[in-house]
Amino acid sequence: MLVLVCYDVSTETRAGRRRLRRVAKVCESTGQRVQKSVFECQLDVAQFEALERELLAEIDAQQDCLRLYRIPGTRGFEVLEHGAFKAVDFDGPLVL
Question: Keywords for this entry (predicted)?
């Protein structure tokens, strides 16, 4: 399956800059960079789970955002979201 990995790591502190480098290293070892913080990876289920575990071990969920888009050929489109950023639910009710 194709997996898109997108991240936004807070770099305001030295620790944040270290986290950013470690997250990038994990992604570089698994897939190809398509933007500064976006990688495409061709993975099977076990590789995906291992990548997710590695990345979750590196980020700070209170400050950083990690999004993993799984795009399997037969299962449809699924987004797993971790961290501070919360996406808008476009299928939810519209409140004005």
Answer: Antiviral defense, Endonuclease, Hydrolase, Magnesium, Metal-binding, Nuclease
